[in-house]
Amino acid sequence: MHSIDFTPAEHKELLACTRRLMRLMRPVSQPGDTAALRHVLHTHAGALHRDRFGLHPVIRHMHTAVLLAERLSPDRNMVLALMLYEYVRAGVLDRDNLRAAWDDDVAHMVDGLLNVATLYSRHASVETDNFRKLLLTFADDIRVIIIMIVDRLALMQDINHHHDEEAVRHVAAEASYLYAPLAHRLGLYSIKGELEDLAFKYSNREMFTRIAKKLNQTKAHREKYIADFISPVRQRLEAEGLKFDIKGRTKSISSIWNKMKKQKNDIEDIYDLFAIRIILDVPPELEKNQCWLVYSIVTDMYRPNPARMKDWISIPKSNGYESLHITVYGPEERWVEVQIRTRRMDLVAEKGLAAHWRYKGIKSEGGLDAWMNNVRDILEAGADGPLELMKNMRMDVYDKEVFVFTPKGDLYKLPMGATLLDFAFSIHSSVGSHCTGGRVNGKNQKLTYRLRSGDTVEIFTAQAQTPKPDWLNIAVTSKARNKIRVALKELAGRRAELGKELLQRRFKNRKIEVDESLLSRMIAKTGYKNVTDFYTAIADEKLDVNTAIDSYVSLDRPADDNATHISASEYVMRDPLADTELNSQDNDILVIGNNIKGINYRMARCCNPIFGDDVFGFVSSEGVIKIHRSDCPNADNIRRNYPYRLIRTRWSGKTGAQFAATLRIVGQDDLGIVTNLTSIITKEKNSSLRSISIDSNDGLFQGFVVVGVNDTSTLNLLIKKLKTVKGVKDVQRSK
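RE: above sequence
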């Protein structure tokens, strides 16, 4: 192995790890395994690269393999998969190579490890429940999760005092949030405890060292105290003829730190740095009686604290946990926690459905807990080796969900079968309503694309796009379907309103007074279920508006004998504004100014036109003429949907009045800059300051200023002067 780029220290460690691993794996290895693995290491050594911590992958994986064999059980296929997957990842081995040299089970686990590596390359935040669920889905095999947990422990052991403290803290955060809880759920308690302590050490080394030093200083005294506390209790219990084990245990450093934070105390004030546990050997029918007997003996000897007494024997926890927890006033005026339980209760406490985590208040899914508990039983009770029975156990605990990424790495959970359209609506209803398709893993896809876990999805939108009725056949999530129904209803309502306005205007142009009851009869006669469908048909040009009017007239012609009728063909040839009373006889232009009488008009708030702007008039549904700027954000929509309600408009001359105009100002957040801006506005002739709103962030400010001006020339001059203020980057009129 000398051809691999090892330092002398690494070479020495590699030899030591190899000897330990070969000794541990001897009972389960097969002839030729060592030679075949050695051949891969020799042949493809140059294909591997050190990780971000400078660790050689062979050393790291050898370390992980030793921990796996020592802490759990020697497992041939898991160790082979662990040692080989980096070579597949580097492209020098493939599945055919693995099958030929080893078997499908090894190749299957390598695939799981590669999937997880791909997941991490997405740079998604691991501190989300969705990431943990997707991790389990991607791994596909529980043994892959176990390898990852042990590998994370090996990594954390290897990076102590690494110079890249930020990277170390990142690994510690992942261990604390992701790997320690998974280790606990799998029954890997010693690994879980070590992960938590190392995570605490790397994230808060000063406090970790302080607690460890304090514990070390008080170790001898603590052990003597525990012995002194236990001795008289042991004598009394033996005198009662009870069979039991009694022991004291010091709590982990991370657990002590959590208590310090929770109780807001220093370590000197944390009284339960250790706990006494009494475990009784007793038949099931005598469990409760003997537990309470021990309780009475202990509380006779030491004064109890009733506020901290917890009886989970009379009423066990929902997860099956049973135990008596009492806190008593022991020697040296110290409070001591005592746990009383039977051997059966202790077994349930150690193997129950994540009892400890729920006791600490951490939520978890019942299905995952039950599944993990089954895995834990297999780990501890497998007759042919605790890991042998896991070969055919697939990670289908989240088989009813899919987890997909945005291009930025955000993770979303959707039900199995969800489409690209569902994903668009899960982001935002506006994104869904305007969705035209998307790009999945770099390839363009339609709205009907069925999402798969791990997909990276980018949504395409277009303002002209609106929900279609057939979208209800594409979407599967209730959120998307409900949003589509609401949008379709709103679109239908708007089209019906447009059709109604069109019909009413044509009635007016033909000088026909409308009788609502007669109109309802005509609608029913033409076969429409309701008036909304009727008006929508007119808006969609499925029903000609003039045909509808002729049908109405034919129903009640005697009542209209004296009316002057215009045929449909004659009407179509006319200017739709020809009969409006709002049009001037002078070139059909509305002239606005101070002297207009008899016409109700006002400036549109969406664009706030001022004297000098190019404008047009729009007859609103309430009969008011709203004056818009020609470049108003709503102008295109108005011209497209309501061309018959437009009125050509111009200014009559100087009005003498002031108009409100909004300016958007961006600049550096310098002292006095706002004062300079307001001073220019108030000093400028024919302008006034009406309101100002400023927000600042990271040394920049953005503000909106409403000014009163007589015309556009005054406004343009004011903008030019404001731009000269030192620190101002941009001044624009806001629409």
